[in-house]
Amino acid sequence: MNPVPPAATRVPPRSAHHHASHRHLLARDAVAEPAGVDAIIVPTARPTAYLRTAVALAAHHECTLVALCSRRSSADGAAALAEREGVDVLALDIAEVPPDLVPDFATTRMLRGGRFARRTDTSAKRNLALLLAAVAGWERIVYLDDDVAVPRPEDLNDAAGLLDRHAGVGLSVGGYPDNSVVCHAYRDAGGEQDTFIGTGALAVGRESFTSFFPDIYNEDWFFLLHDTGLSPSAVTGLAVQQPYDPYRETMRARTEELGDCLAEGLFGLLDAGEPLTGAGVAYWRRFLARRRRFIDDVIAMVHAAGLEEGQKRRMVAALKAARGRNQLIEPELCEEYLAAWRADREVWRAHVEATRARYRGQSAQKLLADAGLLHGYHPCR
């Protein structure tokens, strides 16, 4: 009998039904002349104190802070915090934004009111920021989550400088990894799981303002896609994600599953060098079955891992919730969603271009005034 190798030399367990990394799709170690940042965009739902990092970055870069607020955040609190630091700020309570300022997308309508509906306003906030950026004439903006820090502020300049050749440039996420619940469990059970770039810290240039964020988990991956593949994207620098508990309640895993399946399925095609047009009903039928086998693998890995029993129970409960939701996803829904997403891309492009043309030669303040939102703009310089 072969002896069991010491723990330090054991090969980590892995699943044959999962692509653990898509990093090879990104340009790495790309170099460009650093560029300025016009605005830092923070969709926030946490108390005002969580904006301190973004305010400090906006002060460093002498750029506008756009705080799009809901739930426990408030526009008044965000404005007061920014003004104390001498930062120009546009702070809006998202509930006050006229609903027709951003289109009602087909991808949103087809999920609304059902089990796959996403009950957050993050995508709406990010799309609103794109529209404002287009009208304001900004060239380079940075999305930043309110629980993400950037230890070296100049990393934003490096990312902005790469936007002449890339649709999006993300900072590499350190600290707590940015993954779905299922992929967190895979890593925590011993699997080798990578991260991708996302709007936790993502620089976006003017040419990409006509892409949009669908209202689904992994909306930032969809933002970086075009009809057949991934737009040129890069990674540089470092952002640090604050820790959180992905297994606190099972609803998180349920609400992520459709978006995680769609995004992982599409990026699986890209990993294989195939265009997104290969994602038909037959492909999704195979992929959804593969995804369920992956989740089963992770459940087995969790049971075998040397984790605290209470932690195991919470992880398994979350994984079973994801698997249960997966079983409700029909291959036809995936194909229909992608068709709606492609149509929405054209709707958004037309909307941005029409709005940009309507306000050409005027400032973004005119758009804000027309929408009854000018009270949210607080210039300090």
UniProtKB/TrEMBL annotation:
Q: Where is this region: Disordered?
A: 1-23
- Name the domain of life this protein comes from: Bacteria
Name recorded for this polypeptide: Glycosyltransferase family 2 protein
Q: Where does this protein come from, organism-wise?
A: Saccharothrix syringae (Nocardiopsis syringae)
